[in-house]
## 1
Amino acid sequence: MTADKHIFITGANRGLGYHLTAEAVRRGYTVYAGVRSVDSCPLLDSLDAQFPDQIRRIEIDVADEGSIRQACQAIGTLTPSLDAVINNAAVLLEREKTLEDLDFDQVRLSFAVNTFGPMYIIQQLLPLIYKGSGQAIINISSEAGTIVNAFSTNYAYSMSKTALNMFTERLRYYVKDQGIEVYAVHPGWMKTDMGGEEAPSEPLETASGIMNIIERKTTITSKISFITHQGKPMPL
């Protein structure tokens, strides 16, 4: 068990975010669970019963700067430091739309959630992260964010994830002298609400792999920050 470690996870009430939360509390972390509504999280209710006092629900809308500021301030009142942050919350919009049919309000929302939200969260939480130990920042990305492997449509999601990858690389360089590990992680095609039941992998396996990266149990040789949940390099 990892003693006295603190982690913030967005989108913590379902899908990969829930499994990351569950894996983190099993490893002894206190989890600040970012959710849209603190009152409607049945999966977290069950987890709370198993791991009392290890989960602190933080209400956050990652598309809203005011909400992000309030959430980060709330975390700061609960802990003087953070050892890890996982930007997991994301939206998949306009998936099959051609360029002619794109709703640009939905494209802008995709960037707000998938790119600008993680950027603003890290900006607000850096003071707490600097005070942590063995720190790690994980931005959940996607193969869809690669130039070579992206789908022919999927403009909003793919472009917002490509931008997230670039932010991750810039952030990695910015904090490298602080000993902070920074990665954009492709989690694989998983059985979640976004991935569907036909997906070949389970989110629990991915969550375990990401926590191993955070705990530096995985040897990573990639020269860039974009990797799989097993620590393997991803193509650009």
## 2
Amino acid sequence: MSDKDQQIADDWAAALAEQADDNIETAPLEELTDESTPITEEERRRLDSIMDIPVTISMEVGRTKISIRNLLQLNQGSVVELDRVAGESLDVLVNGTLIAHGEVVVVNDKFGIRLTDVISQTERIKKLR
């Protein structure tokens, strides 16, 4: 083992020993409590009535405008330039309304999206107007 590798191993051993030290004081934490008022039975019934309404969620990589002439000339292997740069976040839309931004992930050989920024409710309401 080289001197550098030995130094790294020693640093890890020291960090683990420090972590195992019994003299560590724990910081007191306040108990989290739910201070919101409970919803009434009528509110619960109203909420239940909309919970099963289907919505369409879509992820948008980018957009572009092209003429019908160019659209008809597209074939397999054609490349369409979008208005975003590589690595930029995707838009997450519900029924056409932007609700979040995210990044593509692969889980069990399937594509998914990790939300990186959720648009606040007030901002979403402003965009509806």
## 3
Amino acid sequence: MTTDSARARPTKPTVVLWDWLRQNLFNTWYNAIISVVIAFLLYQLLSNLLGWLLTTQGWIAVLTNIRLLFVGRYPPDQVWRVEVVVALIALLTGLSGGVWKGIVRNLATGFGLILFVLSLIAFTFPNDGFNPMIAAPIFLLGSSALLALGIWGGSRIAERLRIPLIISWVLLYPIGILIIRGGVGLPVVETNLWGGLLLTLILSSSGIILSFPLGVLLALGRRSDLPIVKGFCIAYIELIRGIPLVTVLFMAQLMLPLFLPDQVRIDSVVRAMVAVTLFSAAYLAENVRGGLQSLPRGQAEAARALGLNSVQTTLLITLPQALRAIIPVLVGQFISLFKDTSLVVIVGLIDLLGIARTIYSQAEWKDFTGGVWRETLFVVAVIYWIFSFTMSRTSKKIEEKMSVGYR
């Protein structure tokens, strides 16, 4: 026997594929023509793309130079140091996902899946004569297992790990650079041997990590009541924003040594890091200033009414709200910075794009029909897309969780 509420419950209409196509794609004669033409073009595009992906022999060049693509000319017998840094990142990411759950756990899971897929692909890498790369599949599998173990362990002792994890993330950058470069018992690997994805990630992460506090300080300085501080910040921001990044790189690489004493020499990678950081900080400062200006004046007035001074008001009230409001802009800038690091090839640094050019210029691939540049650049484009898409999706999840842009 059915109740009145059960009889009154509406039933969902079944959606038939043809009805959906007729209502959305073939509802008028001109929409039908446009749909058929687009479907034909998509078929031609996808069939040609799949045919090229499955039949081209250029993948041999990519697999043969996979180490060059990822770490450049980094000494083969020292690649384990890069692997140690990746393992540390995997462990900290897993522990963070176990402690904070939510978005962080989703990010950690995605990172673990990437490591697992790379480990499966790594079994197809050819042996180019040194032992560390033979262990690449085992290392990647171990890193993904370490990440999964971190998620499990972090969820068990979450309360005890929060502060140590924050400290560990702060220390990871200098420790990682120290391990990769060497010193303190490790052989020094000069930065002119760094290259490929390793150099791209170092430059972009350095720019993101170091430019954030500098940009916030510049934004606060531009709103300062001290004329000298305000004038300096305005002059710096407007000057840097008025010139392209490649000009800043040329200034750092070519002109800066002219102003230094002969006995003072700054590493080329360090100069590129500084140039990228200074350039990114100017744009980030304007984004933060826009977020601060979007806050109603009543926020600061309420803070003063509670007895907070200007420093407490900024750190506890206005700045957190401003940063929350500009999350989409910040992530967009970080994605742009990650891709803009490819400009360092102009000043002699061999990043991911520079290594790709080196690979398809090698003499042994000249006999391939059309060369191997399509395959090499396709792999580079996929790598850039993976990192950019990950940052974009993570930003979207953060916005949804914090209700940024929603009312």
